[in-house]
Amino acid sequence: MDLSPAEPTVLGLLVERPGHGHDIERVVEERGVRQLDEFGPRRCAP
Prior knowledge:
The protein is mainly alpha-helical. Helix content is about 50%, strand content about 0%. It has helices at about 5-15, 20-30.
């Protein structure tokens, strides 16, 4: 199974601290990860 570059990052964030999509969005924004990858609201929510 191939993962997009965003998926391992999101999984890593969940390992650090489980949370909902909006929590992950906030951490992505705080850490500046959005600049590095294809993150968006749809990528972090089911």
